[in-house]
Amino acid sequence: MPSLRPLAAELPEVLARRARWTVLEIGFWLAAAAAYFVFPNKYLIMTEIVIWALFALSLDMILGYAGIISLGHAAFFGFGAYAAGLLASHGIIKEPVLALLAAGGASTLLGFATSFLVLRGSDLTRLMVTLGISLVLREIANKWSELTGGADGLQGITMQPVLGLYRFDMFGRTGFVYSLVVLFVLFVVARRIMNSPFGLSLLAVKGNPLRAAAIGISVDRRLVAVYSLAAGYAGIAGALLTQTTAFTSLDVLSFDRSADVLLVLIIGGAGYLYGGLIGAVIFKFMQDWLANLTPQYWQFWVGAVLVAIVLIGRDRIGRWFLPARRVAEWIGRFRPARLFGGASAGKRA
Q1: pLDDT: which is higher, 271 or 326
Q2: Which of 16-30, 265-279, 297-311 is predicted with the least confidence, judged by mean pLDDT?
Q3: Is residue 349 part of a domain?
Q4: What is the pLDDT of residue 157?
Q5: For a FRET experiment, which of 24, 32, 174, 283 has its CA 20 to 30 Å from that of 10?
Q6: Residue 345 belongs to some domain of the structure
Q7: Contacts of 10 (CB under 8 A, 6+ apart)
Q8: Are 37 and 269 in contact, with CB atoms under 8 Å apart?
Q9: Cβ partners under 8 Å of residue 13, min gap 6
Q10: Residue 54 lies in a domain
């Protein structure tokens, strides 16, 4: 009779299996890279998609994995955008990568400072607190016009070439490649974190925080950590927008931006990291197509799509693509088990 192994002994195997890259994932990123050659006239909108995808990814980290609902996630997006713009316009840090890291770090600190307010109370309280933080920051940016430019926006932003080699061009080629590389690197980091014991503990906290605390999980510390990390990701997304457009305004702190990123995540689905990426592609291309088709009523059709998703149900929509997923899983059986760093994927306890 086979002996039952303790659950702790199975944990490395479970984590390795979760961290293993699938064929669909590899295909997704190859398709994203191929878009540079397939759509040579769409660099600007594709850069927007990448930035929205990173922004939605940051929201998915707190909503899909930790269960923290936010209506003011644009606060960190806008803070990072203004941080990168001010650093460049005042000549403090004009190198894009360094400015990106500085903006992300500043947004992470803001997320850490405000996380203690967000963690208090129920979901409704969190909604109001996150919305209030975003509105307060927007009003500060509006009133402090001598620094932020106020309603006119922050102008005079000039970025140096990326790593001193690649200049931003008016067609958006450099901006797209630069943004896509940043998105991929940060996605790999987020994927690694969410497939670690820390990520599993977040799911436990989301499912039942009282039970998670009872088994020894430090609930508040984990929520503070993931909230601060997500704020940093959102700040980097905002900094990318500033760097690729050489402009930022109060719009980056608006409620509409927080609502739009929530809509992006609803379209793509929360809780598996790719939801924000897929939702950003659908949302932006749908917005671009509908704006050209019916400039006055495109928001109506976006809302109609959202209502259709709710009425039909995400599970039913997912079943429509089940054959393609099974084919991809069948193909995946013949690929190397150690692909993309999954060194322990092929090992068994």
Answers
A1: 271
A2: 297-311
A3: no
A4: 85
A5: 24
A6: no
A7: 349
A8: no
A9: 347, 348, 349
A10: yes
Main-chain phi, psi angles of 10, to 5 degrees = -85, -10
Token pair 């990426």: residue: 277
> What does the pLDDT read at residue 269?
84
Residue 274 · residue 268 · CB < 8 Å? yes
Residue 12 lies in a domain: no
Host H or E run for residue 212: helix 209-214
User: Could you tell me how far CA 77 lies from the centroid of its own chain?
Assistant: 10
User: Are 265 and 63 within 8 A, CB to CB?
Assistant: yes
Which single residue is written with the structure tokens 């929360």? 270
Share of the chain above pLDDT 70, in %: 85
Q: Provide the greatest CA pair distance for the chain.
A: 77
Residue 9 above 70 pLDDT? no
Give me the sign of the Cα torsion angle 253, 255, 257, 262: positive
Cβ atoms of 50 and 176 within 8 Å: the answer is yes
- Per residue in 150-161, pLDDT (tens digit) is 888 888 788 888
- Taking residues 334-345, report their average pLDDT: 42
| Among 98, 94, 58, CA closest to 74 | 58
DSSP string, 123-164: HHHHHHHHHHHHHHHHHHHHH-HHHH-GGG-B----PPPBTT
In the chain, the number of structural domains is 1
Tokens representing 179? Answer: 């943004």
Q: How many helices (H) and strands (E) does the chain have?
A: 16, 0
Domain that holds residue 327: 18-340
